[in-house]
Amino acid sequence: MTTRTKHPNPTRQEILLDTVGLLHVGKQQKRLAFANDPLLKEVVWSQQLGPTLFHQAGPALKDTLPEKAYTRLQREYYEALRAHMVWNKTVNDVLITFYAEDIPVLCLKGIVLANTVYAPGERTMDDVDLLIHPGDLKRAARALEETGFLPTRIPISAMTKGFQRTYTTATFKKKGFPWAVELHWKLFHPSAPFTVRDEDLWCSSQRIYGEGIALNAPPWEAFLLHLALHASYGHRFSPVRQVYDIARLIQVKGEELDWDEIRLLAKAWKCTNALALTLRICHALFGVPHTDDAKVQACMTPASNSLVRYTLRTYLGSPPRVAESDSMHLHTLFQHGVSWRAVGFLLNLLFPSPTILVHQYEYGKNRSQLPVAYLSHWMTLFRRSLKMLPGQESKSKTQGGRSEKWQHWLGAE
Fold it and tell me: Higher confidence at residue 375 or residue 205?
């Protein structure tokens, strides 16, 4: 059993690393050194690790955590378990409707993980992500409408090709149901610095059976690569559960993963940097994947040690510091993305029609509000353009610091 020295005033970063240590594959840590600190509650629940911690180390934490904290962990775990059963029944009803209408659909992220690599109730979900073909959007939306899920942004009649070019997802909610269903026709916006090939997701799709649910999912190699892009590009490795999802997938399905195929997919999608950095972060925090495999090492090579330290310090708040030269090196890698983003800003400014269509519905279909929609559109683009300038960082209260240039580097070859 490994424990940390009790510090009178532990930092949030120290508590986070201590919490992560409970889920580390190679460590035998079974208690929290900072269990009585009030920051513990913020760290555990902000990183969405509560039910997972209770399932993995619940009995050991009973004597370590304060009674209120342990009771809350226990309550959230059983609530997540009930939600898991409700989710499976609801999603299964939706999928049956899709199959009856002959609409091809793939399940992504949380719903797949919760029914494969996690025990029931161990992983929470806020929504379920379904991938469809772009031409099936209206049919899929009407199928969701039959099950009680209605679009939250615009009516189904407005889901035209222009809407599909501007957005990549449509959100649906059901009255009295606390969670949402999201339809995706593309995993990432076309402006993303990498190219996800749809055929890699649809070909060799697999059938998965869970508790009262049967679903289709992408092959594990494409699924893992999507998780890596979602964690790095989409969430900047925060909350930590985004990284733990990948660690858990590798831990449970490692023998089924073809690492040569993963490396080739990353090269085809032009996201070798994102994959390498995500795997290095995953190994640093949770001890997987094991680096003694040459095929795994080939996937992790593009990310240097200094870049991993910089990422841990910037986005996860890890104590190791990085030299100023490393920061400048990262800044240099970002520069080549600025000019193309400026071109994209001008094109969006000149041809905003798809976005204006959506704004028009958001303003209650009132044509007199169209100038307001145009002004809102231009102001949004102007604010985004300021974040594209060299050296500018956009701030986020929930994720510490975010950089558009960081996102561009993740897809660089």
Answer: 205
d(CA 248, CA 259): 16
CB 279 within 8 A of CB 289: yes
Q: Which of 392, 275, 409 is nearest to 337 (CA)?
A: 409
Q: In 270-369, where does DSSP find H-type helix?
A: 272-286, 294-300, 305-311, 324-334, 338-350, 353-362
Query: For 362-412, how does the pLDDT look when each residue is reduced to its tens digit (9 = 90+)?
Result: 333 444 544 555 565 566 656 555 544 333 333 333 333 344 444 555 655
Q: What is the pLDDT of residues 142-181, one digit of tens each?
A: 999 999 999 998 889 889 888 888 889 999 999 888 889 9
Task: Provide the H-helix boundaries in 137-293.
Answer: 137-146, 161-166, 198-202, 220-229, 241-253, 259-269, 272-286
**Tokens at residue 257, please?**
């993963």
Say how many residues make up the chain.
413
Tokens of 408: 């561009």
Dihedral of the alpha carbons of 410, 330, 20, 51, in degrees to the nearest 10: -40
Count of C-beta atoms within a 10 Å radius of residue 362: 13
What residue type is 109 in one-letter code? K
